[in-house]
Amino acid sequence: MKKNIELGLTAVEKQQLRERKISLKALRDYAPDEIASLLNASADRARELVALAEFQSIPSLGIGFAKELIDQGYFSLDQMKGKSAVELFDAYEKHCGCWADPCVEDSYRLLVHYIEHRDDTKHWWDFTKERKAYRAEFGFLPDRPVTAWYETEKYPKAKAHLKG
Questions:
Q1: What's the pTM value of the predicted model, to 2 decimals?
Q2: Whole domain around residue 99: which residue ranges?
Q3: Torsions phi, psi for 158 (to 5 deg)
Q4: pLDDT for 11-57, tens place per residue?
Q5: How far apart are CA 137 and CA 26, in angstroms?
Q6: What CATH number does the domain containing 29 carry?
Q7: Those residues with Cβ within 8 angstroms of residue 77's Cβ, 6 or more apart along the chain or in another chain
């Protein structure tokens, strides 16, 4: 399991943990209702914190990817069990309304591999060859978004870089 997992805690939430002498690492061992009580947080916030920790427990998947999963309505790995990486990735692109960097698809392949095998020895880049072979054979959906991820308002640094 990864040592450093970012939870995006507020200053108030961090202070509440310090007052209760609970480390960030230990917080991952609490149930959502316990977290809600400890942090005086809503059930939704507690569920989000548990999801952030669970998703980031997969090697090479960070808080950005974890937040994207939550934005799509996923709060546990079990919710994605039985779905293919392609299905999840295509849904992600439709959700965000733009096509994504290819490494994002590799990350979905890692996610599904982890769900199916609980193998924590792989990283997203281990799935690049698999993704390239799949896309060479099958391509993308005909209704794939036409705007690139870096052209959206969500990525102003990438957009500014392109304007150069």
A1: 0.87
A2: 60-164
A3: -65, -40
A4: 999 999 999 999 887 888 899 999 999 999 999 999 999 999 999 99
A5: 45
A6: 1.10.150
A7: 54, 55, 111, 114, 115
Residue 35 CB contacts under 8 Å (≥ 6 apart), including other chains: 27, 41, 46, 49, 50
Contact 34, 79 (CB under 8 A): no
Length in residues, the chain: 164
CB distance 90 to 141 below 8 Å = yes
30 lies in the same domain as 70: no
Contact 85, 92 (CB under 8 A): no
In Å, what is the CA distance from 144 to each residue of 33, 138, 147? 39, 13, 9
Domains contained in the chain, number: 2
Q: Do residues 95 and 154 make contact, with C-beta atoms less than 8 angstroms apart?
A: no
